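Title: Prediction job returns without error message
Component: structure pipeline
Severity: low
Priority: P3
Assignee: unassigned

Description:
Job completed but the reporter wants confirmation the result is attached to the right record. Sequence as submitted:
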Amino acid sequence: MKRVSKTKLSLAIALTIASSVVPYAMAGSTLVTTPNGAAYITANNGGKFKAGAMTTYISTIEADTGSTVSIDKAVSNIGYNNKPFISSKGGSTVTLKEGVYDAQKVSTPI
C-alpha cells in the first residue's frame, strides 16, 4: 500500500467536493426592490424563484438558461418605452397564475 501525505489527501478530497459543487454554484435567482418600490426578478443558469402573491409592483421578470420563475399573483406597472414585462429564453419557464399590468392610462388583465 502506497502512503499518501495528509496534504495530498486533503487536496484530493477538496477537489472532488469542488467538482461536484461547481456546476450549481453559478445558478441563482434574485429579487431586487428599487427605492420607488418596483421589483425586478431574475433567474439564470437553472436558478429557481417561487413566490405567492407579490405585494410590490413588479417591473420585470427575466428567466434565462433553463431557469424557472413561478409567481401566483403579481401587479406590474409598465411605463412607455420600457422593456417587456416577462422575458424567457434558453429553455426557461415563467409561470404567472394571475396578474394585472398597468400601462399608465389603461389597466388590462393578463
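Comment from assignee: result matches the submitted record. The chain has one domain: 26-109.
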